[in-house]
Amino acid sequence: MGNICGFLSRILTSVKVKKTYPSVTECIALHENSICLYLFLQLTEVETGIILPPEIHEHPVIRRLQTLACHLVTFFNEVQPVIKDEATDSIYYNIVKK
């Protein structure tokens, strides 16, 4: 958790104070970690009452599907607010603007 918090803090400080913008890779990582989708994906087990064994969670295909789900939400979240952000001059880091 400390590494993610440090990464997020460094990026946000860089953007807000120094007015330097993160790379596309950093933007994706920043947004992917800030939406907490990995956590919410795990909550589906609680909701359904079906707890999967660790072998399923650790399987490369399952991990890849989770990553793709996070990317899908991250990319949607990048595109969706662009017009509003531009109108309010509140866009700091967005891969659409790169």
UniProtKB/TrEMBL annotation:
Gene3D superfamilies: Farnesyl Diphosphate Synthase (1.10.600.10)
Pfam families given in the database record: Terpene_syn_C_2 (PF19086)
Annotated InterPro entries: Isoprenoid_synthase_dom_sf
Name the record gives this protein: Uncharacterized protein
Organism the protein comes from: Chryseobacterium lathyri
SUPFAM superfamilies listed in its UniProt record: Terpenoid synthases
Superkingdom of origin: Bacteria
